[in-house]
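[job 0412] stage=complex_fold ligand=6-O-phosphono-alpha-D-glucopyranose status=START
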Amino acid sequence: MKKSSVVIAGGGSTFTPGIVMMLLEHLKRFPIRQIKFYDNDAVRQEKIAEACAILLRERAPEIDFSYTTDPKEAFSDIDFVMAHIRVGKYAMREQDEKIPMRYGVFGQETCGPGGIAYGMRSIGPIIEIIDFMERYSPNAWMLNYSNPAAIVAEATRRIRPNSKIINICDMPVGIEERMAEILKLPNGRKDMEVRYYGLNHFGWWTDIRDKQGNDLMPKIKEHVAKHGYIVNPEKHVETEVSWNDTFAKARDVYAIDPDTLPNTYLKYYFFPDYVFAHDSQHPEHTRANEVMEHREKNVFTAARAVVDKNTAKDCDFHSDEHASYIVDLAEAITFNKKTRMLLIVKNEGSIVNFDPTAMVEIPCVVGANGYEKTCVGKIPQFQKGLMEQQVSVEKLVVEAWISGSYQKLWQAISLSKTVPSVTIAKKILDDLIEANKDYWPILK
Ligand code: NAD
Ligand code: G6P
Ligand code: MN
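[job 0412] stage=complex_fold status=DONE, emitting structure tokens
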């Protein structure tokens, strides 16, 4: 059985230990001969990497492990780049979330002006990583889940149209796991076959069946109409308050189109006033702060403990089982599995009444040659209208980045359904430019 070599780009990420644990648990179906970490922040990466070195030494000594900030070392002799970088780290996420709030607009990692700001930071470094991969391992695949995935995907389509990159998001996976819990399916979401379409963080399920073809939608809808995607709260004690709010709010998101089941992220576009009112109770304490106080602190404390004890025997790293979709993807490519998965890909006629150049999130069949798209067909006016507006925002951001255009970025922010006026868009933009001067191209 072929053994793969993997580089994790964003080695210092809070998700890295969980991904390594998850990779170890799936070695039977996706064998690995080498794992490398790559990051541009040597100090941050070292803390995670030193702990993972101990973990790997104890649990899989046959796997070669190394970490580096040198692109040649990182990207040579690899089959997959698993990319989860956060350009500007949490300090800039905090700015993305807090700046729009000065003007009555909520701030979020991937939606609205915050997501646009993050997109403007991420395009250059993601292209740089693709170029490193192509220079040092021309046959490798990049599996990208760095955010904001919608804008990153559009940028790669425009700037590196022939590169071997697959953009993917775990939100549908997370929601499907909850659906499977509602249904009490013995093998979880893998007992379901779904039809879904949309943009990243902006989509709908239209059909969900079991392997025998029985319709599972009615039972899920009945639950969502009452509880959103909150299910077995006693089992999900670790879910933070803000995520619980989001899962609960899916009930209201669902109400506007009971023919489909929604992605949770639609709450930001359908209820921006509600989200702002909620967030504005804590304008100095946003999700970035919550993540720094919980996930970041916990992961780095756990890493430190492993290094101090020089063993990972009873370490506090948790396998991110939910991230096993990354193994599904790598396994499908390596062993030509023809696995059906939701990917962010060029529409090219799959949604027949939608821009063929849009990057859409739809079911694809993954094998050794990459992916084949399934045909979605025609979508309703409501979704089409929403998606046309949102995809235009994403396209204008990429246009603005490529051409260095202030005007295009102002248009992008103005067009976002989350922003009430062109005047407010300009104020937010001017503050974002100031905050992002180390990251964005100069806009004229
Ligand atoms: P984090 O800040 O803990 O980790 C990101 C790492 O990327 C940091 O160590 C940072 O130094 C590094 N980095 C930044 N710019 C880089 C560059 N140019 N080259 C190399 N490394 C660079 O962030 P996190 O919260 O762990 O999230 C990581 C990323 O994964 C984010 O983009 C997040 O949005 C994304 N994510 C995506 C999904 C999805 O479904 N698509 C799910 C979870 C997380
Ligand atoms: C979901 C989304 C990701 C997002 C992640 C973490 O899984 O699909 O795109 O990055 O949540 O969000 P958080 O606020 O916990 O950092
Ligand atoms: Mn996502």
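The CA atoms of residues 219 and 269 lie 26 Å apart.
[job 0412] exit 0
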